[in-house]
Amino acid sequence: MAVSFAEARCLILDNCVSLETEDRPLLDALGQALSQDVVASRDLPLWDNSAMDGYAVRAKDCVSGATLAVTGCILAGGQPEPAIAPDSAARIMTGAPVPPGADAVVPFELAELKGERLSIPGKVCKGDHIRARGEDVGAGQAALASGSVLGPVELGVLAALGQSLVSVHRQARVAILSTGDELVAPGQPLAASQVSDSNSFALGAAVKAVGAVPQLLGIASDDRESLMGSLLKAAGADVLITSAGVSAGERDLVREVLCELGWQELFWKIQLKPGYPTAFGLLNGRPVFSLPGNPVSALMVFEQFVRPALLKMMGHRNILRPLLKAVLKESVRKKPGRLNLLRIRLCQEGQQLVAYSAGDQKSGILSTSLQANAVAMLPMERHEFAAGEEVEVQLLGAFLPEPNDQI
Asked: Could you tell me the residue ranges of all domains in the chain?
């Protein structure tokens, strides 16, 4: 019996456990998730420092008509300067430590220097243009939480705190196998009724985009010997993905061969369109996803189930795409009984998000996905949706709305 969308996702995520951790140099850890909280070992910044090129002063000395003696110059990375005496100032460069006694910095452009005497026409307040010690991150404070994905800002914080290595969950190794007598590798000549294998590369790219490492196993024919030999090549992978050969035809042998290898099948078939004949189970404790062969179905199932599973295994906290509400621009009809994933072009029109069909929704029409930036999640029990009706939509990536951005 087919499982529901929610049941399938729960079964998958409950059976995907976090991978072990590793220490990596900062740049090599880009895109990976922290395996533990990072607690600041020191203040950031380490000392009060100037936010501008200017003069370090005592705010109470900067009264109307007063002039100050300029007594020195403080450079970033230079030696500490003596305290600022009353009615004195020191030139100071951006990032240089504020000397004792000074409590404000006046930018060069807001001061007037005549000889060795400085006058400041405007008002000066304590703390002006000073970056206080620990104002960014204080010693002992949690700077980054476990599960944070390391991007440029996160890596910059770690470097500023003096770390050269970081503990992360390692990347998942994902073996990908396409099956079918009709398939040939791209670049090879096509005989009658043959097609180029696109799933290996589409799924491999999807794996890479999520931060995992794809291993393409090539193409297996629709016979037990070819399938067995190809599946055995996945022995070192953390996850196995197959495409095609998972329906109910005479040559759909993937599930049978997996069972011969000891696969524990947890479900076969989801109440979902596209993606109905999907199967999931464990082989030697490792997740195995058997996806439909249609290119659209394979990628849609990857997006809904494989992507969050890989993210969970790699220690991410946020593993599901955001859900929003949008208004259908056109009416939609479907058969009840399955949750439908309608590929849409999401646009901003005034204060409203509007969903346009991205094109032909057949599961063999991959080009429609070129126009889609989201999917509408149409509930399984309904069969008709009116233009102007609000529906739940799921983003497929970053959404930068443009006015009247229609297909």
From this structure: 5-19+171-313, 21-44+135-169, 49-131, 323-395
